[in-house]
Amino acid sequence: MKREIGKEWRDADLTHLSVSQLNRTPAYWIYAYLYLRDDRKNITVGENAAVGTAVHNGLQSIVCHGQDITDQILAAQIAFDFHDANQDAAKREKYRDCIPDMIRNGIDILTEYGFTGAVDEERIETWLDGVNVPLIGFVDLLVPDTMFCEIKTKAPRKTKLLKDGTQGWAKATLPKAPEKAHVAQAAIYNYALQVTPSICYVTDHDAVMFTPFNCDELKADALAYAVEDMRQKALIRQNLLRVSTDPKVLASFTDPDWGHMYQWKIETEYLEKAKKLWKL
After folding, report:
1. 267 lies in some domain
2. Residue 263 lies in a domain
3. What is the domain-level CATH number for residue 130?
4. Residue 228 counted as domain residue
5. Which of 24, 58, 126, 144 has a C-alpha 20 to 30 A away from that of 70?
6. Could you list the residue range(s) of the whole structural domain that residue 231 is in?
7. Cα 268 to Cα 264: distance, rounded to the nearest angstrom
8. Rounded-to-integer distance, Cα 17 and Cα 15, Å
């Protein structure tokens, strides 16, 4: 049921939440969504995210729209070439070469699980109990009234330099179970759509599909737990906004946790802005 957005959210000029927002720490959320706002889109992502976007778009074009696989592999490589990710020249070269096999492996498993002709980027909007703003998202692949799939990519990781001076690489590892953040996303989409969830992980050497029929993390009780976890995270943000919509004020109540394993791996310019925000 659609509801009216709460005053605390309107005062902060926020119209919705997303799973990606809720998977961030409250501190980073304050920084990105209340302090940076639209400027956060200018933060340059790394090559891992760039190759994921290229492969994701290629798979959707082939599976959902019947585009030629050879053409879409080339289009994905070109898109990757022109992506503004600029963190690592070695990854740039390596990942480009991985794109063809990642797309082929993705097509094989998505076809096997019946996603040919699926709808891509289906918009969902749902409300959680007590949260006065909707959660909005876009589903990667949807077979209406049947099943949806979220596509995730895993790229090779760098190891030490070899004796000849070239970069060493380790194969991307396929997870043995879906990752917590991805389960949260699937749980919200399942809550909104009420169809079978699945999460597909793709690498350049293999792919795996998780469904409620082969892993506990996507069974009904685990999904309900994940939805409640998302609800609690949303309520924390709602309660913060009831204190203040000023990011400087809210920063004074939160720990930025500068040592977080990935949260603050952003460009120096933006990291310095964050540190100024938390300078009391």
Report:
1. no
2. no
3. 3.90.320.10
4. yes
5. 144
6. 7-255
7. 10
8. 7
Written as six digits, the tokens of 120 are 């891509």
pLDDT for 242 equals 97
Residue 58, exposed/middle/buried by CB under 10 A (0-12, 13-18, 19+)? buried
Q: What is the pLDDT of residue 2?
A: 67
Q: Tell me whether residue 273 is in a domain.
A: no
* pTM given for the model: 0.94
User: SS3 letters for 250-262?
Assistant: HHCCCCCCCCCCC
Beta strands in the chain (DSSP E): 119-126, 135-143, 147-153, 157-161, 167-170, 196-202, 207-210
Positions of the chain with pLDDT lower than 50, given as ranges = none
Quick one: pLDDT at residue 1? 61
How far apart CA 147 and CA 98 sit, in angstroms, is: 28
State the total domains in the chain.
1
| Adjacent-strand bridge partners of 157 | 170
Confirm if 43 and 272 have CB atoms less than 8 A apart: no
CA atoms of 101 and 107, how far apart (whole Å) = 10
State which H helix or E strand residue 89 sits in. helix 89-112
